[in-house]
Request: fold
Amino acid sequence: MKHTALFAALAATLGAAPLLAPSHALAASPYNTLSGNAPLVIGHRGASGYRPEHTLEAYTLAIEQGANYIEPDLVMTKDGVLIARHEPMLARVNLDASGNIVFGADGKPVLNRTDTSTNVWELERYSDRLTVKTLDGTKVGGWWAEDFTAAEIRTDIRTQERLRDLRTGNNAYNNQFVIPTLQEVIDLAKAKSVETGRTIGIYPETKHPTYFKNYADANGLQRMEDSLVATLHANYGNTASAPVYIQSFEVSNLQYVNTQTDIRIAQLLNGSGRPYDFIVAGDLRTYAQLAELDAEGLLFIEGYADGVGANTNLLIPLVGGVLGTPTSLIADAHSLGLEVHAWTFRAENVFLPSEFDSSSDPAAFGDMKGQILAFTALGLDGFFTDHPDIGVAAVASIPEPETYAMLLAGLALTGFMARRRKAG
Reply:
């Protein structure tokens, strides 16, 4: 749990100390991170570029490729079990402008082909559970995790490639893998830590916390955050040294988590919009304002979190499809002792800034390694990627101190390196 008074005193102490000159910082390490250690490679939903996301198989491959952390997004089942899914919808269908389900010529609901991650839509026995709900203020149709018990999900619901029309090769793994629980993801990380001799961390995200708090309250269930913290404490203890970060796009639930645990917390920052709990509460602050030091957004975050997980556009905005001028977010966060992890690095051309494209084929791999190096040059502390093998290769290729300094000078970014380091 963060203590504001303690950190205010620490900030005052650090503020009185001379800033490290870039040459001094580089002399100690090639890594311009807050800790001086190599940037963390976080397997985004596992190695989701190569296997259907949020499966033990995707997490295992991420670990084999060298990821330091694996990321399970968490939703709740009908009986309150935390499972790894990107969204509450196990499968999603298209709606018309009035919020009604769209049916095709065959009489079947039209599948949303970018937000369906299981085969539940193919299972006739569950056809009556298709429904439309309001999720964070928007009508969404589909089959919802909280309408199934954990046992039902385990019985015959299997994962599918979510980006089925882009990552077509991953469709070969459809209908094979079970949806893992949070505990199973932890068990895998701990087992692989022993097997590999290196610590594999987890980076769980509470998905749609306002939505799930309302669901838990209405059904007499333990709220998601309490279940998460209890599970983490049982497996790792209540300590900031645990190989765990808890993350969320909302704020109030992380403030609550901060009162319950010493495990590290990361505030996710989207490239646009506001946290949904801010919308509910009438708080007009945007993610962009939370990312600013001058607007005291980062000072606010420092009161309850240990870092931020930032959309890449908050670090280097895109201008005409190519990387523009870097912002001061990393340097500003570092000055407060906050880590910065960026999301999401994907190798396909369709996701890359134009200068890193390899061709006009949206599914072909471009130069994601080059993209990563542009961000690590700023002092990025870690990054989420669907392709951990490429991420690990990028970190391994970060230049030695003297060439690193030349690289930074060439990018006119050395000014961002003069920042205060977090004590300890």
Confidence is low (pLDDT under 50) at residues 3-28, 404-424.
